[in-house]
Structures are given as C-alpha cells and as structure tokens.
TrEMBL record:
Belongs to the TonB family. It is a single-pass membrane protein. Residues 1-18 form the signal peptide. Residues 44-136 form the TonB C-terminal domain. The keyword Transport applies. This is Energy transducer TonB. It comes from Mucilaginibacter boryungensis.
Amino acid sequence: MKPFLAILLAIFTLSVKAQTSTAALTDTTVYTDKEVSVKPQYVGGMDRLGSFLAHTVRYPAVARERNTQGRVQISFIVEKDGKLSNFAVTKSVSKELDEESMRVMKLLPAWKPARNNDQPVRCLVELPVTYTLNNR
C-alpha cells in the first residue's frame, strides 16, 4: 500500500508542477507597470532610449511645413520574451507625426520583460514622442 501511495503522490506532484508551468507559459494577461514587481526596461536604460529616439525620429516635412508640434503617445506590450507587440497610438497629434512615431517604435529592439513572482509577464507600456520646432 505504501509504494502505491508514494507513486500516486509522485504522479500528483508532477501533474501539479506541469499544470503550473503550462499555466505560466500560456498566461496571456497584460499587466500595467503598477501591477508588476519589476517594470519592463529598455536595455541600456532610459538615457539610451532617449538617445535612440533622438537619432531615429525624423520630423516629417509636411508636419514641419505646417508647424505641427506636440506629443504623440504610443502604447505597446512588452512580451514575456522581451519582444514588442500590439503598437497603438493612444494620443494623436497629426497623421504624419503619428505615423513617424509608430515607425520608430516598431524599430525598437527587445526589452527586459516585466516580472511578477520572479516570472516574466506581459506588460503594457506607454511612451511619448515629443515633436518641437525651433522657429527662430
């Protein structure tokens, strides 16, 4: 009876571990940065992100001619593997500035993913892209 109980307990333990691992892998919940213990991070930090944006963003000619300025807000999900997905404009300024912001965001490399309970989780990020003209 004891060997049977030990085998049954071992199978149950393996089953629970397998379900936990599968659940962690298939969890599609998207958290906000306030709901995670470790926020997603651009590799190299915010200074490097700012530098990337400064070197990559091109002020659209039409927006420059129209003197269009403002802050476009882009949201995206940092996936469990750090890749970025589900890009969306959440605050629009103009078609040209929105499109340029989306183009640049889609060029971003993978990030360090957010974590909860020492496990990577999907996390929503919102980043502003500010467009300012120096009219001298």
